[in-house]
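Dear U.,

Please find below the material for section 3 of the report. The protein was modelled together with S-adenosylmethionine; I have listed the sequence and SMILES used, followed by the predicted complex structure.
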Amino acid sequence: MQAQLKLQEIFPGIYSYGNRILTRNLAPGKKVYGEGLFSISGTEYRNWDPFRSKLCGAMKKGLKKIPINSGANILYLGSAEGTTISHISDIIGENGIAFGVDVSARVMKKFLYLCETRKNLVPILADANSPEGYAEYLEGTKIDLLYQDISQKNQTEIFIKNAVAYLPRNNYALIAIKARSISSEGDTKIIFENARRELEREFEIEQSLNLAPFDREHEMVLCRRK
Ligand SMILES: C[S@@+](CC[C@H](N)C(=O)[O-])C[C@H]1O[C@@H](n2cnc3c(N)ncnc32)[C@H](O)[C@@H]1O
């Protein structure tokens, strides 16, 4: 006899279902990146793939807190085609808003389609190196969480600049650090240590997690602005 799978809320708006992680689909019937859809007790959920999304990989690796609630305002740097931010869109729901910043016009094209079906997503084609470039979009919005996944040599500098510009003190931030964008050689442990030391200028670090096997040579850092 097959065991009945149980849906359990593990963080606000995030559910475990057997060994899967699911979010409730804000746009029922629509997939974003080919993920599986599950109808459970009359509600549709989307499978969140840890090999496609570093935030899901971090959860699988034991991230102790996901500072995203229903109705939250998120600034997401490096939104790309929208894989991870689509799950954030599910979690924050209709009363939240997630600004997705990306410098690539190619990925933004696909993200724009997603923003048409998900009204809580705002696309911003801009370079996150210059946070003042999108000040007009964020005016009057208090950011609850800064999230960054940008593979640039100066990724920690970009993150700090944006926090200083838009993240109120004591609010949470998550950064996915890609070691090999910072340096193509050397021990990744040292690269991560140096990056964390740089972050400590502006943040209190609460947790850092190596994302293997989901993403090699990446670390997710959960921190809070001082
Ligand atoms: C690894 S992908 C992000 C994947 C995405 N976070 C997800 O999980 O769905 C990194 C993205 O950062 C963007 N990027 C790189 N440099 C940037 C910059 N200076 N400003 C804004 N976006 C940038 C790239 O265009 C790319 O789409």
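For the text of the report, you could mention the following: The two ends are 53 Å apart (CA to CA).

Regards,
Y.
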